[in-house]
Design goal:
Elements (H helix, E strand, L loop, with lengths): L17 H28 L1 H40 L13 H12 L3 H10 L2 H20 L6 H8 L35
Helix pairs in contact: 1-2, 2-3, 3-4
Protein name: FxsA family protein
Pfam families: FxsA (PF04186)
InterPro entries: FxsA (IPR007313)
Length: 195
Amino acid sequence: MTTGTPPPSRSATPRRSRVRTFLPLGIAAWLVLEIWLLTVVAGAAGGFTVFLLGLAGIVLGAVVIKRAGRRAFKNLSETLQQQQQQSGAVPAGEQRSGGNGLLMLAGLLLMIPGLISDALGLLLLVPPVRSALSRYTERTIERKMQSAGPGTLGDAFQQARMHRPDGTVIQGEVIKDDGRPAQRPDAGPRPPIAP
């Protein structure tokens, strides 16, 4: 007879999330579907047509990513110039949501070989679809951030977003200087606060 701790019950082990369960299966199914669709198109239209479609997707994807990158850099430059001129934060009315992330995602999907990814990339190039997806994603992220419990990654992001009303974040240590010597047991100098 052995003594020791009993094995953990099923309720003690953390439950695996749906994303971690189904994401590998979804990626595998997507890859199989892409390969099957490429073989069907190659059988119907020829291998050279599939090669030209893949090449066109790579070229169009590179153009879209380059254009989105230039637009993002231009927006960043304008924002920095406005902040230097105003010596403060950009007012809320002047902040722009460029949607460059979704444009870059569209370019990446176009560059990935496959017809389904190309179709999704072309769909993301349509401005109403891109803005609707952007709004949906923003609402979903905000909802997840608000429902984040203590000790989770979402809680860490929520804490990192806390700041003063004017947008300034001041990190430091408060030291009371009331003329009395320090009443600490170690009475040595304090180490600096690590960032």
